[in-house]
Amino acid sequence: NCLCSRSRCYLQLGELDAALTDAEDSLKENPEFNKGLFAKAEALYSKGEFEFALLNFHKGQHLRPDMAQFRLGVQKAREAIETAIGDTRRCQLSSEGDLTLYHDFVAEQEAARIARNKRGGKKVATMAAPSRRRPDAHRARSGKKPTSNVKQLLGELYTDREYLENLLADPSLKLGEGTSVKSLAKNGIQYLDKRTEFWRQQKPMYVRKSEQRELRSTKSNTTQRMATAPSVDRVARLIEQAENLNDKGNFDTGLEKAEQAKAGVAGVISADKDLFVARVHNALGTALFATSKIDQAHDEFSQAVDVARNLKDPELLARSLSNLAKSHAAKGNFDAAVTCWSEAQPNITDRVEQSWLQHEMGRAHLEMGKADEALECGLAAERAANETGDQDWQLHSWILCAQANVALGGHQSALSYYEQAAQLAQRLHKSSLHDAI
């Protein structure tokens, strides 16, 4: 286990040979040690030896088929091999291309023949070797990769490599501490070159260029679609404005903003589109409800509930159900209203909202002649209001409890609740409500 852990550390540091050595040492006592097999396979993969890595991943998968890391290792090693060698079925050998090695061989043979003939005193006509060397043949044989390829393989790291090369060439780093700095720079360049070679083997340049073309094409199509689509920020801003205006009681302007948001949200390209749609329906419904357009508001709230259910967003669903319940109650459908509020209740954590919800459910029960349920809701509303110290909802909950007790014939309890409510209404300067009590 210790050797495997150290192998992983070496792997992160880029010391691939040391990582492989530790992984192999961990397998000396038990060649079937699964962690050791995985460490060895990873080290081989990082060295660019994909075939041997695949062999060890396969061995580990055979011994421990339950370990997903071996299955994933087999998959990535296979992909690396297939990407590196390409599709062999498309490979058609021909005499075209770089024949430098062949021409060099012919030239060497001709030179040797001429030398032999000269030693024998014969003068012979030379056979001109064909010279069709490609301009980049020397570079290809010397193993140097074009700068553009290195730049593509390294990406953002290419600027770091340039910086290290400049350090090596800096004449001021020849003495003292400069020697150690140059050594570190050299090590850095060697490490980057190793990674470049690994990435080149893992995914050759022709594959990268093909992928980049596909990516550019995809981005272009996406950009074209988004250019014609409404701005996500603009729609979100309109929804927020509509909600804020409704909260402030400016329902006419809130309705205008909500309608603008509804017109724009249909063309929005965003993962949050459904959330925007639900919020638009709720904002529209709230403004319509406040302007006495109950049926239209009810339709908006119903659509908001449907969207919220599909989103499986508990908070949004609770808010939408509460709005729908309110419209049911306004239409006289108290039973449906109670059903909506009951479904919303478990997802409402705010105690002030709980007090409001219990009060509204209690009033609906009272309208249906269910005084027992109304009193129960009134007491629950009182408890929630007491916890938060919200005096407005304390007042409303006491009035509800008083009316429920009257319906149940508990006149003494009703009188006590009315007296508490009258005193609190006076303290809160609610004169009209105090007179009604």
What order do the helices and strands follow?
Answer: HHHHHHHHHHHHHHHHHHHHHH
- How many independent structural domains? 4
CA radius of gyration is 40 Å
CATH class of the largest domain, named Mainly Alpha
Question: For the terminal residues, how far apart are their CA atoms?
Answer: 79 Å
InterPro entries: ODAD4, TPR-like_helical_dom_sf, TPR_rpt
Protein name: Outer dynein arm-docking complex subunit 4
Keywords: Cell projection, Cytoplasm, Cytoskeleton, Repeat, TPR repeat
GO cellular component, one term: cytoplasm
List the helices and strands and how they pair.
Blueprint: H1 2-13, H2 16-26, H3 34-46, H4 50-63, H5 68-85, H6 100-119, H7 137-142, H8 147-154, H9 157-169, H10 178-202, H11 205-228, H12 232-247, H13 251-265, H14 273-290, H15 294-311, H16 314-330, H17 334-344, H18 351-367, H19 371-388, H20 391-408, H21 411-427, H22 431-436
Could you name the key traits of this structure?
single chain; 437 residues; mainly alpha; Serine Threonine Protein Phosphatase 5, Tetratricopeptide repeat; 77% helix; 0% strand; elongated
